[in-house]
Amino acid sequence: DAVFVAERQAIEALGDRGAAVEGDAGLRKVYEEKVIPELIGCLGEESTRMAATGALEKIGAASVGPMLEALGHEADAEVRGGVVQALGEFRPRAREAVPGLIAALHDESAAVRVRAGYALCDFALEDAEARGPLIAALGDEEVQEGVLDFAESDRVEVEREAPEILRAIEARREGDPVRRVAGWLYYGFIVVAVVS
Length: 196
Description:
Blueprint: H1 2-18, H2 25-42, H3 46-59, H4 61-73, H5 77-89, H6 98-104, H7 110-124, H8 128-136, H9 141-153, H10 155-161, H11 163-174, H12 177-195
Helix pairs in contact: 1-3, 2-3, 2-4, 3-5, 4-5, 5-7, 6-7, 7-8, 7-9, 9-10, 10-11, 11-12
């Protein structure tokens, strides 16, 4: 679809130009007031989320504060979820995102909590301070789902850098025989590696 292609190209161009905001005060002001908020809004749409995430990454540090602001105040759960997902892509450059991601573990939207679990797990590999709140939130099945999705995509690194997260998930399953069996069937390869 021509509109879809044009939309993505425009978003990518904004990101390419936005990479220069650090050295140009006038451009930075325009981006902070107009462009970054529009790109954040694009995070709520499946069709533009990837391009907007890439553009915000190219813009860099100037986009992190506005994304955290949107995470705390945006009414649209799709936008909040897109912000969480985009912040996860900033690891490890955006440690200031960790408190916002921790707060997102308790979002009213299940989809936001799944994405927060995934994104925060990524940060927790290098940031021990992120692990405690993440482990504490594992009682929420959506957070657990996000963590397990991340562990499935990067199992070796999670086992090496943050095995306590996987042990905490297994400990929660121990009390529930149905979940324990399901966990062994589906995620057994992760648990076996951590427990042994």
